[in-house]
Amino acid sequence: MRLLSFFALGHSDLEDHWKSLQSEQAFGVVRGRLCSILADAITAAGVLLATSSVFVTTGSPVTYFDYSSPAPYFLLFISLMLAMIAMLTSGSSMLRWLHTDRQWTQEHIKPGGYFVVFYLLSIITPMFFVACSLHCLIFAMLISGFSSQSTICRAVTPLWLVTYVANIGTILMEFMHKYATSLKSRQISPVHSFHFLSFLF
Description:
Layout: H1 2-9, H2 15-20, H3 24-57, H4 70-98, H5 102-109, H6 114-146, H7 151-185, H8 190-200
Helix pairs in contact: 1-6, 3-4, 3-6, 4-6, 7-8
């Protein structure tokens, strides 16, 4: 639950979010921020959808970079499907947040249980599908680059892969640092931090 809360709201528990439900002004700020995140997810999903559609529906303009072979094409198709799902989930979540009521949300979050899990997943799910779609697109391009007949493509692709891995590593390290800082500020046992690292690796 703490991990879901951190992914969705940026805090390791729901205490700060619960405080925002005590006033209309604070709730409006939180709702505006979450709607902005979902709007960015819709934009990113739209870009991925358009890009994947072009790759899926058109052949490679050059012979030495063939992305229509089975493995890259399958990943491009999966990227297309995930981008569509991301747009649908982002749009539905945004509509729900735009029309959500502070008092109703407060009444349903207070008892806890499954509603809180679905509440957090409605924020995380669109971003998850966008990330998966992007990774599928990147892996499709990497496979095409490594299997290319061009020496230049085969030389550039490893550099692209190293850059990709370095960026992912940097993001994970920054995320773990922020999560550990959040746990420390809440004075949560370090055992939970160990479980979080075990979850990642």
